[in-house]
Structures are given as structure tokens and as C-alpha cells.
Amino acid sequence: MVGAPALAANAALRGGAGLVKIACPRENQQTTAGLAPCATSIPLPCTKNGTISVRAIRQLNSLAREHDVLAIGPGMGRGSDVRKVVGALMAVPDKPKVVDADGLNALAESGEWWGSAAGPIVLTPHPGEMKRLSAGAGLPQDVRDRRQDAVALAEHTGVIVVLKGAGTVVTDARRVYVNRTGNPGMATAGAGDVLTGLIAALIAQRMNVFDAAVLGVWLHGLAGDLAAEEVGQVSLIATDLIDLLPEAFAILQ
């Protein structure tokens, strides 16, 4: 899915990241780079299905050491190679990580992934991904109590959970924030990729990781509210959120 990493990269740039690098399968690099011209990009070995190959792990580990934060998952696809790549990236020491989309699916299919994970980690699941993560961790889920589910996963795995949806919940098991910005028009493809890039950008600017997750969620929702005022909830798409991030930051300031 070539658009997903481009959305995350463009959101990270609008979120204040000075340099964003997209690491993607060689077959997709030119297309993805064209969608995010202000980001740099690097081609990775890919499988016959077009997903990142395990042969890219050494290269990715080297790249990870050069950067401040890793955003993992948008557009990756699924498969055994992807699971191994995600597992290797999660183990990179001393690097904060924001994990979304197929990165979350890989974790849900990988057993006790938190045992080998390193560095501050933010997971940003929607309810379906949350269900799979909870099942993979052996946790019961009560969809009627989103706060309780998010806290349980955060406590069990030691990560920060951003459970998206109406009233997005952000928790590290000790602190809980429930967001009040945003609207139903944001339930559109790519909105989660934008949030991933935005949170990663805030972390890259040396913000406390929990605070970055909270502020990212709030700004993301505010940009959605501003976009809804301009185009309406029905017509809102993910690029509208990126376009309105500058105005959201101006309101914050």
C-alpha cells in the first residue's frame, strides 16, 4: 500500500520533523517517493509478493541507529517476512517506536513480542487491531469498556496504548487520557497513518513519549474538526488532516 508510508511521512514533516526517511520495498520506492517529495527514501529488498524481505533486516538495523524514532507498520502488508522484520525493528535498543497498521498485525501474530521489544513503544490500534493484540497477549477484551482494555494491554506489555475511535484512549497503565477532539468523518482510510507520523514527529523533537502520544491525538482530532468545517465530514479524507495540521498547531500556540 504505497500511499500509507507517504501519508505518515508527510504528517511527520507537518508535525515538525526536520528529516523523514521512508524505507520501503524497492518495487514501490519511486511511487511512494513521488507522493512524499519532501521526504527522502531508500529501497529495500522485497519478496515476490512485494513486501519487505528478511534480507532487509541488517540494512534497517543500520538505518535505525541513524534516526531518532521509528514509525513501523503503515503499508507493510502481511506475511512471515514482515513479522520477522517487525520483530527485528522492535528489538532495536534505545529508539522510541510508534507501531500501527500491519506492524500491529505482525505483533498480534508473534506471541510474546514484548519480551524482546526495547525502547519506549507506542501502539496505535483501532478496535479491530486492539482485539487481535489482546487475543495475542492472552487478554480478555470487553469492547464495552475501552479504557479498561487499553489499560490492561499497556500494563501487560509495558507499552503506551493509543486505542483509536470515538474518545481515543491514551494510557501507559498508570495515566489515562481520553481525547475529545475529532469527529466521525475521520473514520477514513489513511487517517491512522497520519496519526502515526504525527506522534513520531513529536517524539523526534524530544517530547516525553506519553505526552507526545496525547498531544498527537489531540492535534490529529483538531485537524479533523478543522477539516470537517472546510469540506464536511462526509467528504473528509486523510490528506485533509495533513493540510490542516499547520492551523491546528497555530491554535495550540
Tell me what the structure shows.
The structure is a single chain. The chain contains ten helices and eight strands. By secondary structure, it is α/β, with parallel strands linked by helices. The chain has a single domain, classed as 3-Layer(aba) Sandwich (UDP-N-acetylmuramoyl-L-alanine:D-glutamate ligase). The protein has a six-stranded mixed β-sheet, sandwiched between helices. It has a two-stranded parallel sheet with strand order 1-2. The protein is globular and about 45 Å long. The chain starts with a helix and ends with a helix.
Query: What's the architecture in CATH terms?
Result: 3-Layer(aba) Sandwich
Low-confidence stretches: none
Residues in helix, %? 40-55%
Averaged pLDDT: 97
Structural class computed from helices and strand pairing: alpha/beta
Shape: globular
Which range does the strand content fall in?
5-15%
Number of domains: 1
Annotated CATH homologous superfamily: Ribokinase
Overall strand count:
8
What is the number of helices?
A: 10
Instruction: Tell me the major beta sheet.
Output: 6 strands, mixed
Write the layout of secondary structure elements.
Elements (H helix, E strand, L loop, with lengths): L2 H12 L6 E5 L3 H7 L4 E5 L12 H9 L4 E3 L7 H11 L6 E3 L1 H8 L12 E3 L3 H10 L9 H12 L2 E4 L5 E3 L4 E3 L12 H14 L4 H23 L6 H15 L1
Helix pairs in contact: 1-8, 1-10, 3-4, 4-5, 5-6, 8-9, 8-10, 9-10
Main features:
single chain; 253 residues; alpha/beta; UDP-N-acetylmuramoyl-L-alanine:D-glutamate ligase; six-stranded mixed beta sheet; two-stranded parallel sheet; 10 helices; 48% helix; 11% strand; globular
